[in-house]
Please model this.
Amino acid sequence: MTSILIKNGIVVDPEQNINGEKMDIYIKDGKIVDECKADKVIDANGMTVVAGGIDIHAHIAGPKVNAGRAMRPEDMKHVRMKSGKFRCAMGGVLLTCPSIGYEYARMGYTTAIEPATPTLYAIHTHEELDSIPIIDKAALPLFGNWHLTFKFAAEKDVEKMKSFVAWAIERAKGYGIKVVNPGGVEAWMYGKNVHSLNECIPGFEATPAEVLTTLMKASIELNLPHKVHVHCNNLGVPGSAETTAETIELAKKIGEYCLHITHIQFNSYTGDTWKNMGSGAEELAKLINDNPVTVDMGQVIFGHTTTMTADGPFEFALFKLAKSKWINKDVEIETGGGIVPITYRAKSAVNAVQWATGLEFGLLVDPDKIVISTDFPNGGPFTSYPYIITLLMSKKFREKEIEEKGVNNYIEKATSLLSIETERTFYDIVKMTRTTPARILGLKNKGNLKVGADADVAIYPFNCNDMPDYERILKALENPAYTIKDGEIVVKDGEIVSENWGKTFWVKAKEQSEVIEEELESVFKYYTVSRGNYGVREEWIRRAEAIRV
Amino acid sequence: MIKDVVCTFCGNACDDIEFEGDYGRNLCPVGEAKFARKERIKTPMINGKEVSYDEAIEKAAEILKSSKRPLLYGWSSTVNEAIRLGVIIAEKLGGIYDQCSSVCHAPTTLAMIEQGIVGGTLGQAKNRADVVVFWGCNPVEAHPRHPTRYSVMARGFLTRGRSDRRVIVVDVRKTPTAYLATDFYMIKPNSDFAIFTALRSIVNGHEEAVPDRVGGLKKEELIELAKTLESAKYGLVFFGLGVTHTRGHERNVEAVIKLVQDLNKKTRYILQPMRGHFNVVGSGEVPAWEVGFEYAIDFSRGYARFSPGEFTAVEALIRGDCDAAMIVASDPVAHFPKKAVERLKKIPVIQIDPHPNLTTKIADVVIPTAIVGIEAEGTIYRMDGVPLRVKKIKDTNYPTDVEIMEKLLEKIVR
Model:
């Protein structure tokens, strides 16, 4: 492994309160070091040096991602790179595994989290994660519609929930707790959905609120590095803002940090019909800033994409609305999922409000509490992050986009976007793409450039102390001068120059499965897979790294 | 005793087999045959002459590298790890990757591209389904444990056994599966599309549009069938080659997918193709995540192109596009049309397989490997996509498919 000196770069690292200081960064054996003899010197004069970006929520691997690819050859036929020294890279919005690794690296991103894997399918998810080059990754198993979750939630038994969570995360080789529309997917098995936090889940004595509360308590007691990652109930419908606010109230009652609400944009609509829907971002942003909760944006990008979520009933509703093709998957007694293609149109009032709502969050929520995301591929491609960042950094660019794209002027009435003067500084952006996601995920060696941190570094060809106009910012963010992963230069001037294989993180919590032995035995009667064949072994994963808590 | 062994024969991939020496408890007759001692290819061969593995691999690599557009076909009876390497080899060679679906459930994939698919795991049949339909499929003979383990008699969370389920069989003859049925409908061959369409009309409230007889069924029978379908709390339609390989092909599958979409507006329904080989699903999933498509993939331009009917093995062979072929874990000579086999006879063929079959007879290079699920481990996907890790339960001197693919890839990118 070579050692590298990044010389005279302008460093931004909010974790160390470094904001645009000219510094030298040394890299050796895949880590940031104090000083060393360097085999290679990168002259970063006039360039901005930051840690590698972290995507906290992107559907990049697993059965539904792949089902989306199979259903949409019209999207996959887009050629990004021909086969040669590297793999051929295919895909428009949806991407193949090689494309995913290359495209993240080409933006200066080095870590991404697959946020929704059924534990029954975890072997598949890890096979795909293993086929993604360069980046580090992890997967979040789904808990929100598991029969055992309902049982322990109904009994308010945090002890058993803890054991169950630890057992399931170990089986999935997962990183934390993901909850999608708690109870709603179980209701979908009866053709229904749940519409409030305090409604009883069909067939069980539990409510979504109890599911969330018990899981949040369990995540605290287990000391999980990443707390409960929630896709709220009532996603994507007018009135969802209220449910989101109630969900935040649940976390507030617990009193310490335990809730990450994902793709908040999709869950922040006011009104009671599509005709009068509006953005609830202003009120929710206040609530988020005042309470122990974090979020990611779930920004919508105008154009076509493929929605995919474990929220089966939502996808059915979308299928009826979009009259498009529809994949559904009901998964034993643990979860479900659906896939529907969609196009976000600037001229559509609803889509325009969605677009504006995401940006409102990006501009109104404290950068220590929000992460940039598109909920890839639901809001759009993750390759749009440079575009989203530029929108957040420049009011002029926002105005230009609204004008040029012809964004429906209903946003004037239904959102506060046009009255927001804020322009995010690059320091804020580094927080929203590095520091904050690393903290939320509990990845101490990521998102910063401290001595001892992983040598995942992005060098952008602009001076953040002398910000250029938005066009140049966008171009620089889309074409990093260098991306360094694990101490190896993988991208130079926006092109892949070498390929390595990142780690897959998983959390090994203290497991006491004997506490739930009886429940596990009885629940496996309803599986079609033997308990002995359920889950993933560490040695089946290319580069697994356990985080013990 | 070795527990939780996964049977590597059909798409059921039963994972509850227990081995005591050579005896496998819970195996069905088909599974027993799979695990029974069978004739093996003894050593690697070039033109029928016994050679070392190194020589055979060297020769195979030479054939592939000197070929302009090799066909890499088969894959449905090996593990994903080997398939992945096979896809990469096809990409690096600028060849064609195709797999057994192209002569099997490809119409299902085409219909899925048009309509999506409303699916679920086999656990839904076991736990929730109170109406189970077998349409143009015969699990009693093709997937023998399907009825007991998953669909007809299985005891689940809501449906507690056979008496809780209404079982419908629709076929052109009275198959052994028909004897399990609550209601059996014998239809005329090639009338599936018309019947699905008639059922959709009834379900959607357009009964008057249905003629007196459709596909050998009286209008009253169709109405009765539609009412039974609608009466389900959670219904499940299994379908087989009787739907995909009769007149209409992918249009038949599209019609049944649409029927299931319509039924979901009234109650809950899912659909499941009865996939054949134990890892035919994996042989489509792996290329989808590696290069974007499930089958019929050409790399001659340095990137992946998907074109069924053009890059599917049979058509590519008949057209004479491929000047070499590597067949992995499959037997196209036994199953392809005569003209495609004639082309295979003319071009250099490499076979990688544990067992001799008709393809062995025409292969120029034969590389025997360990039997997946008995002598070699790895990942496979059941018919519903549920991933399972198959086990190594016996030692062997044969190398695995993965080891052979690794060596080939190394020689090809060298």
